Amino acid sequence: MITECPVPRAETERVLLGHGAGGRLTAELLEHTVLPAFGGQEGPLEDASLLPGSKELVMSTDGFVVSPLFFPGGDIGSLAVHGTVNDLAMRGAEPVALSVALIVEEGLELGQLEAVMRSLGKAAQEAGVPVVTGDTKVVGRGAADKVFITTTGVGKLLPGLAVSAANARPGDAVLLSGPIGLHGTAVLSTREGLGFEADIASDTRPLHRLVAALAPLADRLHVLRDPTRGGLAAALNEIARDSRLAVDIDERAVPVPEPVAAACDILGLDPLHVANEGCMVAFVAPDAADEALASMRSLPEGSGAVRIGDVLPADGRPGRVTMRTAVGARRVVDMPLGELLPRIC
């Protein structure tokens, strides 16, 4: 008698934390699961988009699940406002209005919720954008982690701007508005009790005024992107991919604060992969680089602006990002695979 062994059943694929990291796993989730439900997506994926039929109104939405709720330099409330304002700004839009939706876990202390909402309201007021509508839901214990926030923003395009991740051009100067790695390391240190929070605070802040300062460059300003999830590495790879060009940066020009560098060294992290919430990358025509840097440095949020690299012709390798290291070598800067620091936004 012959006994047949059952064919092993493949384990059903499941969603991982890395699918929300903004790296390659996120791209795969969008390409194979999310976008097909809407009929696909033509052109580059942007964090904000023009409303159908409109030439000036831009819309963006974002969810915030950061843990812990409060961290040095910010909290989930202010982060929700800044993140959505910045998504609009990266498409060249001035924020006009926000909506806020809360999912609150049963048992959350009302004092904590009040503190989050005060911070959110203050951040919206300081950014000059009103919260005009919203929603609140309460779920059972364990069905959420304290509070999750979804914000949707509507903005109006600044005259003369048409920025996109697909608009980089050979010869463009790559500018960075300030130091990297502060937000991700601040959140991780607070959550895990690593002790770095005494020296590191999140850089979370709105960037729309910085974009407005660059608006006079008009068609010489080609790309804006805030390097949030996946850090600077993910942002540069997305721009290089969508523009089908190559990007080359200089390691010595990228500002990494000493406490961030020390924390990343101890934890085995690449600062280029660590999330930021208050800096941006700008690709500008080479003859506009000095003017752009002067405009950025005229504002507190751009006081540390520097030129970190250039856009190169693809030369058969579109989407490639390289970095000249401090010792004179050159290495490829890959798109992060998944989530190195989960729950940071």
UniProtKB/TrEMBL annotation:
Domain of life: Bacteria
The protein's name in its UniProt record: Hydrogenase expression/formation protein HypE
Gene behind the chain: hypE
Domain PurM-like N-terminal: 46-156
Domain PurM-like C-terminal: start-end pairs: 169-314
Family: Belongs to the HypE family.
InterPro entries named in the record: HypE, PurM-like_C_dom, PurM-like_C_sf, PurM-like_N, PurM-like_N_sf
One Gene Ontology term from the biological process aspect of the record: protein maturation
Source organism: Streptomyces albireticuli
Xref: Gene3D superfamilies: PurM-like C-terminal domain, PurM-like, N-terminal domain
